[in-house]
């Protein structure tokens, strides 16, 4: 058998491919959300899963760039005044000598990294 069959190849889709995807259309994945400040509806990716008893629904549009900056900065300032961060090295923990490089992007990877950090890594 030729060695070229050992190479993993997959198509790379751009946004126009995704917008025209028959699979995503059949799943009713794209969700129109009204943007009154833009005067139009914008199509957003839908829920990651479909639940019959408790469907995932959008409550509104995502914030515009910089829309909540002042509120977030004020909240950050309030938290920094009430909380004293500890140095992870000083905090110790059973994994204090372990260093972790997380290059994952799907939920299980970052969640596992968070658990490791909770124990000092």
Explain the layout of strands and helices.
Blueprint: H1 15-19, H2 22-26, E1 30-35, E2 40-45, H3 69-82, H4 88-91, H5 108-118
What keyword list fits this structure?
121 residues; alpha+beta; two-stranded antiparallel sheet; 5 helices; 2 strands
Structural notes for this entry:
By secondary structure, this protein is an alpha+beta fold. The chain is built from 5 helices and 2 strands; from the N terminus they run ααββααα. It has helices at 15-19, 22-26, 69-82, 88-91, 108-118; strands at residues 30-35, 40-45. A two-stranded antiparallel sheet has the order 1-2. The longest helix has 14 residues, at 69-82.
Short note summarizing the structure:
The protein has 5 helices and 2 strands.
